[in-house]
């Protein structure tokens, strides 16, 4: 899936999957369509997408030491693409390089998340409005489909499907906004936010509510309603901020 490069989105219907064990479990396997999309990417992009999902779904939990050779064997991808993917993950804040210890999956920090949300709120509002104004007919259809699939994922209590749809939504909104500067700023925050949500959602989140709030943004963009898209984005960010603060009590 490479919406930034303008590739048309392929949105899959949500499906029920077995509930994963958050502690060290493998991420849900890709379906044939998802696998085909991954294979369309460069090896470095393939490595990045797969590692990002393993980290954001806590299959590689915080503190895990990452070795290029082990990751290359696990993903069946060469060490050079793995190295490039790790460099990108470090820029995203998902891994850290520590002298004499190597590369570690970064810790999850509430204070960092709250600072991130201060910036993300402004960017999400801007991107939602721009996407509603600038999305093509094909992109608007994709937004409508993502909205329906997010609600289906919530109905099926399929957290992995919802996470994948959330990434599709973020990438599609980025492409539709036609503003590379806002996109670059937001890109580094999206994966950190997904990982934080995945760690805490069973204790503090409401998956149907989260899905509906995301879907409302998608539907406003699909209808080319700029004002409604901005307002829906603000409601979504209100919920995400409230969710982050609730984790203090869990």
From TrEMBL:
Disordered: region residues: 1-31
The question of whether Ribonucleoprotein is a record keyword is answered with no
Gene3D superfamilies, alphabetized: GntR ligand-binding domain-like, Winged helix-like DNA-binding domain superfamily/Winged helix DNA-binding domain
Q: Which GO terms describe its molecular function?
A: DNA binding; DNA-binding transcription factor activity
Q: Where is the HTH gntR-type domain?
A: 41-108
Give the residues annotated as coiled coil.
Answer: 120-147
Q: Which UniProt keywords apply?
A: Coiled coil, DNA-binding, Plasmid, Transcription, Transcription regulation
- Basic residues bias spans: 13-22
One of the Pfam families matching this protein, by short name: GntR
- PROSITE patterns tied to this protein: HTH_GNTR (PS50949)
The reply to whether Transcription figures as a keyword in the UniProt entry is: yes
Specify the protein name.
Answer: Transcriptional regulator, GntR family
Organism listed in the record: Methylobacterium nodulans (strain LMG 21967 / CNCM I-2342 / ORS 2060)
């Amino acid at each position: 899936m490479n919406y930034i490069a303008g590739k048309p989105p392929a949105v899959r219907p949500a499906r029920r999957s077995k509930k994963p064990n958050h502690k060290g479990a493998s991420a849900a396997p890709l379906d044939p369509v998802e696998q085909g999309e991954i294979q369309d990417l460069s090896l470095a992009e393939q490595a990045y997408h797969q590692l990002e999902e393993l980290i954001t779904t806590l299959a590689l939990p915080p503190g895990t030491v990452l070795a290029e050779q082990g990751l290359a064997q696990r993903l069946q991808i060469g060490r050079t693409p793995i190295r490039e993917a790790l460099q990108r993950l470090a820029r995203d804040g998902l891994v850290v390089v520590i002298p004499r210890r190597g590369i570690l999956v970064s810790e999850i920090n509430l204070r960092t998340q709250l600072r991130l949300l201060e910036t993300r709120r402004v960017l999400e509002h801007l991107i939602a409005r721009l996407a509603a104004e600038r999305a093509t007919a094909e992109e608007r259809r994709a937004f409508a489909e993502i909205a329906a699939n997010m609600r289906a994922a919530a109905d099926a209590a399929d957290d992995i499907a919802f996470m994948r749809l959330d990434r599709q939504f973020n990438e599609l909104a980025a492409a539709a906004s036609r503003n590379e500067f806002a996109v670059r700023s937001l890109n580094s925050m999206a994966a950190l936010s997904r990982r934080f949500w995945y760690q805490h959602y069973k204790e503090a989140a409401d998956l149907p509510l989260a899905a509906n709030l995301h879907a409302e943004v998608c539907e406003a963009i699909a209808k080319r309603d700029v004002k409604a898209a901005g307002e829906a984005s603000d409601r979504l960010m209100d919920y995400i901020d409230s969710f982050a603060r609730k984790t203090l009590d869990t």
